[in-house]
Design goal:
about 150 residues, alpha+beta, Thiol Ester Dehydrase, Chain A, 4 helices, about 35% strand, elongated
């Protein structure tokens, strides 16, 4: 169901409807192209790093989170159009074998003063592994269309 700004209230929660399992090959493939640091590419280097084992790039976690959001319950009018983040944290590494899901909560809804046809929803999204541990927490601002008045 498409949600317009007028349908969204602070405190509303949305869940992901899919899960994505991350394997070692996906971690290394993403890292090779976008974040080619040794602790994302090589087990030996990863074992001696602060991660103490192979860990996905935080940007890989962010990309998977985006996919999970798009496939989840939160369906804002106009799509999930980001207007920036207030917070982006990776409290624990994403490891090979982790299975991710997302949960989101609306923190704030505000109509735009300069663009009456839209507004902004402040959304906290937590990306969780199979043990319910947060691997990413973000607070982002999403542009959402308002319902057209007749």
């Amino acid at each position: 169901m498409t949600l317009y700004l007028d349908d969204i209230l602070p405190g509303q929660r949305f869940n992901g409807t899919t899960r994505i399992r991350i394997d070692e090959d996906r971690i290394k493939t993403f890292a090779a192209e976008f974040d080619p640091q040794p602790f994302h590419l090589d087990e030996g280097a990863a074992d001696t790093s602060i991660f103490r084992g192979l860990a996905a790039s935080g940007w890989h976690t962010a990309a998977v989170t985006m996919r999970l959001l798009v496939e989840g319950e939160f369906k804002p009018a106009g799509g999930i159009v980001g207007a920036g983040f207030d917070e982006l944290r990776w409290p624990r590494p994403l490891r090979p074998g982790d299975e991710l899901r997302v949960e989101s909560e609306v923190l704030e809804v505000r109509p735009s003063k300069s663009r009456p046809e839209q507004g902004v929803v402040k959304l906290r999204t937590t990306t969780l592994n199979q043990d319910g541990e947060a691997v990413q927490i973000s607070v982002g601002n999403v542009v959402v269309l308002r319902r057209q008045k007749p």
